[in-house]
Amino acid sequence: MNSKELNPKAMYKLSYGLFVCTAVSGEKKNGCIINTAAQIASDPNRISIAINKANLTHDMVKETGACNISVISNEADFALFKHFGFQSGKTVDKFAKDSGAPAYEIADNGIPYITAGTNAYFSLKVDKEMDLGSHTLFICEPVFMTVLSDATSCTYEYYQNNIKPKPQPVGTTPKGETVWRCTICGYEYVGEDLPDDFICPICKHGKDDFEKIIR
């Protein structure tokens, strides 16, 4: 075994849940999918969440110091992930009346929480934050939390195997052309080299989550 190996596929073996992080700033409501939310202390109770800086929700949480986390269950359908994960709140109002947003309610803190395809939600108050480069880690105090259903929480693995549609071959690029396909959402970048700082415009994952395809 090569002691210096850094195989990015090892990251796929880590266990992740999936959550909708929602926030409100002024009149703007927004939300995004995150896969890092965990209890990190019990006395006092603290929950950590990490949000990609490319997401508008990140800026809203940083500005207001508050958010809600809705825990996605195995009963969720792909529409929930597509709505909150495959479009940007910078260009789309995800909570507009005609947006097709999954069912939601407004919590006492004035922030939406998702009721369709979820089993619990937490209202969080940011206590501390840490800059992690691509993400900010927010250490939060739960000010409210409740169970919405007994459905099993959705893991990243379950989403990949049972909810996310399998990428379909596009077949529109010339033979022999190099394509980089996002293994998360199926987005394809055409070009011989994928920039090191490339971020998928759909799901916001980086270069490590792309596979090289020669057609």
From TrEMBL:
GO molecular function, one term: riboflavin reductase (NADPH) activity
Cofactor(s) required for function per UniProt: Fe(3+)
Keyword annotations: Oxidoreductase
InterPro entries: Flavin_Rdtase-like_dom (IPR002563), NADH-dep_flavin_reductase (IPR050268), Rubredoxin-like_dom (IPR024934), RUBY_RBDX (IPR048574), Split_barrel_FMN-bd (IPR012349)
Range of residues in the leader sequence: none
Domain Rubredoxin-like: 177-213
UniProt keyword annotation of Membrane present: no
UniProt cross-references to PANTHER family, sorted A to Z: FLAVIN REDUCTASE, FMN REDUCTASE (NADH) RUTF
Protein known as: NADH-FMN oxidoreductase RutF, flavin reductase (DIM6/NTAB) family
UniProt organism field: Butyrivibrio fibrisolvens DSM 3071
